[in-house]
Amino acid sequence: EIVLTQSPGTLSLSPGERATLSCRASQSVSSSYLGWYQQKPGQAPRLLIYGASNRATGIPDRFSGSGSGTDFSLTISRLEPEDFAVYYCQQYGSSSWTFGQGTKVEIK
Amino acid sequence: QVQLVQSGAEVEKPGASVKVSCKASGYTFIDYYIHWVRQAPGQGLEWMGWINPKTGGTQYAQKFRGRVTMTRDKSITTAYMQLNSLRSDDTDDTAVYYCSREIYSRGNYYFDYWGPGTPVTVSS
Q1: Which mean pLDDT values do the consecutive 10-residue runs of chain B (124 residues) have?
Q2: What is the DSSP letter of B74?
Q3: Which residue of chain A comes nearest to B39, CA vs CA?
Q4: Number of Cβ pairs closer than 8 Å across A and B?
Q5: Are B59 and A1 inside 8 Å of each other by CB?
Q6: CA atoms within a 13 Å half-sphere pointing along the CA-CB vector of B46
Q7: Burial label, B116 (beta-carbon count in 10 A; 0-12, 13-18, 19+)
Q8: Mind telling me how many Å the CA of A4 is from chain B's nearest CA?
Q9: Which of chain B's residues have a Cβ under 8 Å away from the Cβ of A90?
Q10: What percent helix, strand, coil does chain B show, rounded to 5?
Q11: What pLDDT score was predicted for residue A24?
């Protein structure tokens, strides 16, 4: 099973600041299967980025994804109040989907 | 519009079974895999497996093999996840269980729609 390790565990930032979240895989991952999801308390996850760098429908352009192989990142260029949430990366490999443990973006 | 509507909260005793439903609407049910993902309180997301609604074929995460069964009823566009031998110890099954639709588009695979989740509590 491919393990995804997200860092940092918690990111404390102010609105308007830039957020950079990391997702590192224990072995190389196909970008076709790399996604990022946002989850707010009491809600289901919401797709943000698919194929490592493609924004899902309706996702603002302040969200961007990049990376390949074992290192991927999600960047939020300027944090809006509604962006404070938990973010998960996800991948498929070795016949199994896995998620990272999540990065919480909290208001400083 | 695409919707995944899940059954309501469940409370079960250790050793019992639970069956959660996920009714799909707004798209052709048999054209997209349905996945089940769970989330224990305060924890992250854990993939459990998928079902191909067209064929009924399934694939389960190693952790759940032998305890989980995913089925579907094409006539009512509903997928089901049954988890047996529920636990309330270190490997607690108390969690919110989500269904999600997998889509393949332009060479990419991802989960584009999610149900609201079904809370399952395992307690004696």
Answers
A1: 98 96 98 97 97 97 96 98 92 94 91 97 92
A2: G
A3: A44
A4: 62
A5: no
A6: 20
A7: middle
A8: 12
A9: 45, 110-111
A10: 5, 55, 40
A11: 98
